[in-house]
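Record 1 of the preview.
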Amino acid sequence: MQQVFVFLILACVSSPGTPKSVDVDTDDDVLTGLEKKTLELETQIAGLKTEICALEMKMKEERDSNQNQLKGVSANVSDTMKVVGDHTAALATLRLDIDSLIQSVNSPPPTPAPTDVSVCPGDDWVEHNGHCILFSSESVTWNTAKVRCMYYGAHLMVVDTEELNTFLKIRLRAPDGNSHYVGGIDFGQANWIWDSTNTEIGYTDWRISQPSNGRTEHCLVVCSGSTCQWNDVDCYGNKKYICQKAAVHG
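->
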């Protein structure tokens, strides 16, 4: 009995050495496995980081692209709004024009303002300050000239103002003169009158030493000589003449 107890004690004392060696081997395997797992995890983490970086780059590119597209859309919207504004303004102007046209169509036509236009009978007559003046192209005696003017409803011209005389000088002046009969006559009494009104001649523009009042020089011509002034001449000489009558106001 004592031997068995001793044997058991020896067995218990010697038996723990063997399990200790087994635990050391097991720990090394576990450590190796953990290191392997850690390496795999680090590799996976590195891969995930790479994927995350790639995703971030893609997101940044997409964000930049979206921002550029947004800017383009904003610019297009601004342009569109400007076009719409222009069209709106044009439409408003068109509406005003249409309203004005409708008003003008519906309104009675305005009464024309009275006109005061001097009218002469034809192309041969020249209108001047309410007078119709005809410069003849034919040369006749003074009496014939008077009849011609009466035929036209006119009379030989009365040159009773400096303004009219200047007008004639401008029309008739020529280097050697361009004498035309007008309505002045003295009937041989050296008393010059206007034939159509039987009134004494007031305004004059005689050449030097004129009128000479010769025996047959009883008719007045204008624009005589290089100075284009008045002269008394023979009434039977053939000369051009000037007719005058009042213009018609229409």
